[in-house]
Amino acid sequence: MAAIRRTKKVILVFLPSESGVDGARSLYGEKELNPFFSWCNQSLRSIIKKSQFAIPPLSLMILSSVEVPGVEQSICDMRFEEFPFDKQWDLVGISVQTGMAKKAFELADQLRSRGVSVVLGGAHVTLFPESCRPHADVLVLGEADDLWKELLTDLASETIKPDYQAESFPDLGLPRPVSKSALIKSRYFTTNLIQTGRGCQYSCDFCNVHLLNGRALRRRAIDDVVSEVARFQQHDRRIFFFVDDSINADPLYARELFERLIPLNIRWFGQATTTLGQQHALLKTFADSGCQALLVGIESIEAKSRSAHKKNQNRAGELVKAITSIREAGISLYGSFIYGLDGDTLDTPSAILDFVHATKLDVPGINILRPTPGTQVFERLREEGRLLFDPLDITSYRYSFGQEMLYTPKNIPLDAFIESYSALTRELFNVKDAVVRGLSAPRAKSAVMLFNLFYTHLYSLSRHDLQHQQEKSGG
Ligand code: SF4
Question: What are residue 141's DSSP bridge partners?
Answer without folding.
Answer: 165
